Write a sequence for this structure.
């Protein structure tokens, strides 16, 4: 489900996925196919890790990368979940052929 609610999306971002919702900053973003694909990839990742474990892993990996990189944006961009989503957001058929736990390839 896609919900437009700009106050829930953190500053500097245009969308966020919190299972089972995709929250967007504005209505026009619903037509951005690459963004929607990116967020759907996150939905699949969350399901694979039973939602709770996704957020635990995401947070721990972010903190480790933040300590190592010392830069919020670079740490975020290097989280394995984000790397998979960014690398494949332009492939609109990606989720049809994606194997389970594919984000592990982006560690």
């Amino acid at each position: 489900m896609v919900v437009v609610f700009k106050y829930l999306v953190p500053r500097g971002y245009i969308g966020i996925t919190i299972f089972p919702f995709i929250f967007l900053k504005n209505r026009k973003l619903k037509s951005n196919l690459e963004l929607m694909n990116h967020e759907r990839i996150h939905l699949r990742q969350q399901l694979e890790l039973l939602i709770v474990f996704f957020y635990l892993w995401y947070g721990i990996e972010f903190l480790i990368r933040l300590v190592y990189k010392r830069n919020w944006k670079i740490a975020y961009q290097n989280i394995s979940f984000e790397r998979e989503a960014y690398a494949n957001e332009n492939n609109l058929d990606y989720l049809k052929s994606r194997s389970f736990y594919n984000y592990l390839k982006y560690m």
User: Anything to note?
Assistant: The first strand starts at residue 2 and ends at 4. The chain has a mean pLDDT of 97. The two ends are 29 Å apart (CA to CA).
